[in-house]
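Batch manifest, entry 17 of 40.
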Amino acid sequence: MSRPTGHPAYSQTLPREPQSAAVARRLVRTALAVWGLESLIDDAAVVITELVSNAVVHGRLASIRVIVARPSMSRVRLSVVDRSKDIPMMRTDSNGDQLRGRGLVLVDALAEQWGTEPYRWGKRVWAELDEDAA
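Output type: structure tokens
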């Protein structure tokens, strides 16, 4: 079950499986609707899907953690925490045979900023969207 945590945030631990992207999108839609940031929902849904997909492919344990935080009135930070220390790299090559690996290009296009916070045991990949910039 989703629950508010700290300065306004929603957080949920999910199984590291492709179906978790749909649960993460619902969590994002719920948080943004509660916060009155509906204009960000479509882009945020794409961003969280890409972040979860990367964690599903590259994570090491059976679960991941999705966090939707609101650092300011108009800004949302979407994060996925997993137990892999591998830092994601944005692929910019245009190899037509490569269908995977370009999700971060979408994240980069939709987010105001994004990045990775390495931990001793894994990492957090995050992206911020701002209603004022939309």
